[in-house]
Design brief:
single chain; 306 residues; alpha/beta; Rossmann fold; 7-stranded mixed β-sheet; 11 strands; globular
Length: 306
C-alpha cells in the first residue's frame, strides 16, 4: 500500500515541482504520471472553498441545461454499447441532477449522490429526483451503471471512491469515469495556466496509465479508455486562453499571484461566448485528431465488475 510521498497508483516515490503553482506544490510520479497538489487540503478548507467559490446552484437559472443533456446523451451511448441491458444508473456528484433527469427520460431508473446541500435539494424539489445529500459509500443498493463524472479529481480518496463503486455494481455492471486528462496537450503546454488546474478544487491530475492502475486496484477491468475534448474548449481555443492567463499573471504583483486560488474555468457571456462556441465547432476535427492520440482534455474510462 502506498504511503505518504508515494504514488497512489504504483507506489513509487513522487517528485516535487520546482516551484509552487497557485499556492500549491505539485507531487508527480515519473512512472505513471499521476500527480496531486501538496499539501492536501483538509476537509474544513474544502468545505469553505466550495461554499464560497464553487457553489453552482446559487445561480441555477443560468445553468446550461442543454449542455447537461448533451453529456447525458454521450454517456447513454457508452451505456448502450457496453451495458445494453442496464436499467439502473447512479451518478456520483450529480450536482442539480440535470444529466440524471435526461437519463431518466431515456428510460433509466436513476439515483444520485451530491455533497452540496443546495444542489441536491434543487434536484429533489425541482426535478423530482432521488438524490442523497452526502458522500457515496460502499453501503447501499447495487446499480447496473455508476457514473463518476468529474468527481475523482475533487476527492481526497479517489481509490476509496472507486472501491465503493466496485462494491455497489451488479455483476457485470459498468463504471464510467470522466476526469481531466493530466497528460493532455493543453496541460503539457500550459502547466498551471491550464483551465483544469484549479487547486484546491482539483486535487488529483490523472493520466491514462495512472487511472487504469487505480481502477484495477479497485477490482475492476477496463473495457474502454479514450481521451476527448469533453467539457473543455478545443485545444487551439484553450491554448489561446491559457496564454491570456499567463499574460494577466505577469501583470500581477507577487503577493496577488501567491494568493490566487479561484477557478479559472472560462466564463464568457454575450458576443464572446458565441465566438468561443463557434471556434469550438470549427476546430472539432482538430480536437478529434488530438483526442485520437490520447491528448484530449478529458479521459473517459469504462470499467466492468468481473
Amino acid at each position: 500500500m502506498a504511503g505518504p510521498g508515494a504514488c497512489l497508483a504504483c507506489g513509487l516515490p513522487l517528485r516535487r515541482s520546482t516551484a509552487p503553482e497557485k499556492g500549491y506544490w505539485r507531487l508527480s510520479c515519473e512512472a505513471c504520471g499521476l500527480s496531486r497538489v501538496d499539501p492536501l487540503p483538509d476537509a474544513e478548507t474544502l468545505a469553505d472553498y466550495y461554499s464560497r467559490v464553487y457553489a453552482l446552484a446559487a445561480d441555477a437559472d443560468r445553468v446550461d441545461v442543454r449542455g447537461y443533456e448533451k453529456q447525458a446523451a454521450a454517456m447513454a451511448r457508452v451505456f448502450m454499447r457496453l451495458a445494453p441491458r442496464a436499467a439502473t444508473v447512479c451518478e456520483v456528484g450529480c450536482s442539480g441532477g440535470w444529466a440524471l433527469k435526461a437519463l431518466q427520460r431515456r428510460g433509466y431508473t436513476v439515483k444520485g449522490y451530491e455533497l452540496s446541500a443546495t444542489t441536491s435539494r434543487l434536484a429533489r424539489e425541482h426535478l423530482g429526483l432521488d438524490v442523497v445529500t452526502g458522500e457515496f459509500t460502499a453501503a447501499g443498493e447495487p446499480f447496473d451503471v455508476i457514473v463518476m463524472r468529474h468527481v475523482l479529481e475533487h476527492t481526497l480518496s479517489p481509490l476509496g471512491q472507486l472501491a465503493a463503486a466496485a462494491a455497489r455494481l451488479t455483476p457485470g455492471g459498468l463504471l464510467l469515469v470522466v476526469v481531466p486528462n493530466g497528460a493532455s496537450l493543453s496541460s503539457r503546454l500550459l502547466g498551471q495556466h491550464w483551465s483544469w488546474y484549479i487547486p484546491p478544487a482539483h486535487i488529483w491530475y490523472f493520466t491514462a496509465a495512472s487511472l487504469t492502475r487505480l481502477v484495477g486496484a479497485a477490482g475492476l477491468a477496463v473495457r474502454e479508455l479514450e481521451s476527448r475534448q469533453g467539457d473543455a474548449n478545443s485545444p487551439p481555443v484553450e491554448l489561446a486562453w491559457g496564454m491570456a492567463r499567463w499574460m494577466r499573471q505577469q501583470r500581477r504583483t507577487a503577493a496577488v499571484v501567491a494568493a490566487a486560488s479561484s477557478p479559472e474555468r472560462l466564463r464568457t457571456h454575450g458576443p464572446l461566448s458565441r465566438i468561443v462556441r463557434a471556434a469550438n465547432v470549427v476546430m472539432m476535427p482538430v480536437s478529434a485528431g488530438i483526442g485520437a492520440f490520447g491528448l484530449g482534455d478529458e479521459l473517459w474510462l469504462a470499467a466492468a465488475r468481473t
